[in-house]
Design brief:
Layout lengths: L6 H14 L13 E4 L14 H13 L2 E4 L22 H19 L16
Parallel strand pairs: 1-2
Length: 127
């Protein structure tokens, strides 16, 4: 990334190029419906308040009728699954998803993580 450029500027420019084109060039992907962003910004975690990047993605989603999928794999705290990692291969996929989502929610709940609207976000079915 060139010095002096912000990630929000780069993403805005890239998405605008996809749907509108740039500098006389035609749109590069005007029919895209889903954009996957797998990014991790260690010094700007997306908790507590809505980040400039989150605001941009919300606006771009509205403007271009596109769905953004943003990686959630950058969880920086240890996750206690309640069973040894060696046993996870035998857990059915649906049960594994449920196990991991609940474990992350419990970890966040214990650490006092709160969403930008001020409410703790537990996973559905979390006891």
């Amino acid at each position: 990334m060139r010095e002096g450029l912000l990630i929000v500027d780069l993403i805005h420019r890239a998405v605008r190029r996809m749907f509108e084109g740039d500098g006389g060039e035609p749109a590069t992907a005007p029919d895209v419906a889903v954009i996957n962003l797998s990014i991790g910004i260690a010094d700007r975690p997306f908790d507590g308040t809505m980040s400039p990047l989150a605001r941009l993605l919300d606006w771009l989603s509205w403007k271009y009728s596109v769905l953004f999928l943003v990686s959630a794999g950058n969880h920086g705290r240890p996750i206690a699954l309640g069973r040894p990692w060696s046993e996870l291969a035998a857990v059915p996929t649906e049960d594994l998803h449920d196990l991991v989502v609940k474990a992350v929610a419990r970890t966040d709940e214990r650490s006092g993580w709160r969403g930008s609207w001020g409410a703790t976000r537990p996973a559905p079915g979390l006891d």
